[in-house]
Task: structure prediction
Amino acid sequence: MQLTTLEEWLRYQEQLNPKSIDLTLDRVIAVRDRLSLKPNFPIITVGGTNGKGSTCAMLEAILSCAGYRTGCYTSPHLLHYNERIRINQTPASDSDICMAFSAIEAVRGDTPLTYFEFGTLAALWLFCHAGLDAAILEVGLGGRLDAVNAFDTDCAVLVSVDLDHQDYLGDSIEKIGFEKAGIFRSGKPAIFSDTRVPESVIQHAAHIGAELQLADRDFGYQRLDTHWQFWSRERKRHALPFPALRGVYQLANATGVLAALDAMRDKLPVAQQDVKRGLLEVELPGRLQVLPGRPAVVLDVAHNPHAARVLADNLGNMGFFQNTYAVFSMLEDKDIKGVVEVLQRRVDEWFIAPIQHPRAAPVEHLRQTIAEVNPQQPVKAFSSISSAYSSAYGAVAQNDRILVFGSFYTVSDVLLARRSAPGGS
Result:
């Protein structure tokens, strides 16, 4: 079988393993070894329930400003698969990704890799051939059995632990914390960015001998009117600009980033001016992203109650808007009710539709859930996210706001709809 385009390769991978999520390291390790993938550059692995993407983006921006040749692997993507694999902040080309896929297929044999496992191995294959100074790897799901964990880290950053993916990771914060702490390594720094740390994370770090550093104990920040300060056991960084990424929670993420860079200072020293520039230049679409112009359009990939609480707080701090119209959809296996319960106080009217995904929540399920939480709120149903957004955009006044949230797929469908609409509206 001859596969020549990226689209063909991705369709092939989706059919290769009957399970879209199949948590084990055996397959990845077997193919990794056949590929002889042995990274000779430092790796920073980033896990957590929420905040992983922001943390990776800030690490990538600061290290790039410091002159390092970086690789960054994240998931999922918004518009193009290439966004997942970046070298020097530039998405890998179709041809390069296809070359990596071909190399994997040549040695895979009968090992049924999943879509995510294929992508992880492709990223590391490209990184190992790119002469990198450092790589940043974002965990896809959990940590202990995630494909990214087949590659040893020099520094693990665990951003947060909250309820999500309970079917795979366990039904409690402590169980989920143990799974996510699986990215820690003996004798290596392990940064926990949140102030709420599960006991299972502390115990696992102690059990394997990881060098655990906790927010507010080993490092932290002080917010001032026009800037902020970072402190750790090793140093202080003064007069730091607020991160370009929106949201007050980004300071906690940035603090974890600087703690990780402190822990890696012997291998990847970073100057103060590089930290400042990286914080100012970092970009990450779809995370409390406010599109230019009026009416206000806010995009956020929040897809669990923890992320929804953060989004609700930030919406409340954005100033006055007469009405907020929510373009909303989620995957069926997510805590839809928990998300709606948090956001319904910020929403005046719902515009719902199915997303283009096999695990998409049916529109009637979305409608019933919203009605159960708040029977008084009006809900309009549509056949697609693009039509839901178009209707919301037609109803909104200049002093109103459109909120697009619930999934990466919800946000990406709106971005595609805006791109194809006359005038980009």
Observations:
- The radius of gyration is 21 Å.
- The mean pLDDT is 94.
- The chain has 15 helices and 17 strands.
